[in-house]
Design brief:
Distance between the termini: 13 Å
Strand content: 5-15%
Order of helices and strands: HEHEEHEHEHE
Shape: globular
Radius of gyration: 20 Å
Largest sheet: 4 strands, parallel
Helix content: 25-40%
Number of helices: 5
Strand order of the largest sheet: 5-4-3-6
Structural class: alpha/beta
Length: 169
């Protein structure tokens, strides 16, 4: 969502908000096609517009395209550790810090490095890497940075668990 984004408007003043609402409506009206990352988001955003505009809407779930995404393969995990992967960008208030805290809590009670690998694919601010190191998680976490779509898809297909990290709303 744009004007319905709960993280955007607390920082906007009333004039910016009114301008954004007008601009979004204009774009929705004039666009030949509108792409959302989920059907739920499309329905939510488009509910305030004329039904006819909904015919221009397409949902591609978070960039997933079954025509190019490799299918998961059995027995690909060769290191005997469970692999959890998150692919995407972190931003305030959605950060990896709650995950790091949970991993640290468990790791302090039971060493995880032989059992678990957590892979974060996507741009990551250095402050998160430093925090993970300070928390003693460097042997559990792997930071891959940005990667091409097909390479990321291949890695996702080899994961044991895919994670979605979301901020509370």
């Amino acid at each position: 969502p744009w004007v319905d984004n709960p993280y955007l408007f607390p920082d906007y003043n009333m004039m910016q908000k009114k301008f954004s609402i007008k601009l979004e409506r204009s774009i929705m009206r004039e666009a030949n096609g509108i792409v959302f990352t989920s059907r739920q988001t499309a329905d939510f955003v488009m509910s305030k517009y004329p039904d006819i505009w909904g015919k221009k809407v397409h949902a591609i779930p978070h960039g997933f395209d079954p025509r190019v995404t490799p299918q998961p393969k059995e027995g690909v995990n060769k290191n005997n550790r469970m692999t959890l992967i998150h692919a995407g960008k972190f931003f305030e208030p959605r950060t990896p810090i709650p995950l790091f805290k949970a991993l640290q809590l468990i790791n302090n009670k039971q060493k995880l490095s032989d059992k678990l690998e957590v892979v974060l694919i996507g741009p990551i601010e250095n402050k998160y890497r430093l925090t993970a190191d300070k928390m003693g998680l460097s042997d559990i976490l792997t930071f891959c940075g940005e990667q091409p779509y097909l390479q990321t898809s291949k890695q996702l297909g080899q994961a044991d668990v895919l994670m979605v990290i979301e901020a509370s709303s």
